[in-house]
Structures are given as C-alpha cells and as structure tokens.
Design a protein that fits this description.
Elements (H helix, E strand, L loop, with lengths): L1 E15 L13 E15 L1 E3 L5 E16 L3 E19 L2 E12 L6 E12 L2
Antiparallel strand pairs: 1-2, 2-4, 3-4, 4-5, 5-6, 6-7
Length: about 120
C-alpha cells in the first residue's frame, strides 16, 4: 500500500476578447493572471519486483484533490493516478527513483488530464 501526498503550484495568463461589430473601434479585452495551488491525497496498491539492482513498479492510486485559485474560488474532487517507475539501487537502503503517472482530477465540473514525472532519492527501512 502506498500513500502519495503532493502539492503543485502554477500560474497562467489568459485574455478574453468579446466579439465586436466590424469597424466599432479597437478590441477591448479582459486579461487575468490565474495563480493556483493544488493538493492531492492519494492511496492505493503498488506492485514491484526486484531484478538485481533494479526494482520496477506499477501503482493505481485513488483519493482526493483540492485546488485553490485567486479570484476563481476553490474546489475539491475525486482524483486518480495510474503509473509506475523504476528504483535503481545505489547502496542497500538507498535508491534513485524515476516515476511517471497519469493523474486525473475533476475540478469545477471539468476533467483535467495531467502527466506527472518525478525523480529523487528513496530511503528504505
């Protein structure tokens, strides 16, 4: 069983230009900079097998996500992550991990499909 807690930060600029009749003057639009903060709390099974210095694994995680955006409110939704990776043993209790997951959330009534790639050191006890 695996518990995966992650936090993501980001911002994006977007502009909306309403349709205006031809010749009515310069286009007037509204631009906004959206800053968001997302937290995911996922749990589920992970299967792995050791092959010499390598340990490939696959996982299916389920749980919840929460996003907070400036000016657009916040939302909580069901979240899933399907993926796997590879641990490369450095010394017996320490390995280097390469991991990729397909993460899906459903904030504000729409589905978000994302790819999460990560790497780092793993300590086993």
């Amino acid at each position: 069983m695996v518990a995966d807690v992650s936090e993501h930060f980001g911002n994006a600029s977007s502009c909306v230009f309403p349709v205006q009749p031809a010749g009515s003057g310069p286009e007037q639009g509204f631009c906004s900079n959206v800053i968001s903060h997302e937290e995911n709390f996922l749990f589920g099974p992970r299967v792995s097998v050791s092959v010499r210095k390598f340990r490939p694994f696959a996982e299916a995680l389920f749980g919840g996500g929460h996003v907070n955006t400036n000016g657009f409110g916040s939302d909580t939704s069901f979240a899933t992550a399907l993926g796997g990776g590879l641990d490369c043993k450095i010394i017996p209790p320490v390995a280097w991990r390469f991991q990729g997951d397909y993460v899906q959330t459903r904030f504000f009534g729409a589905t978000q499909d994302n790819v999460r790639l990560s790497t780092g050191i793993v300590f086993r006890f």
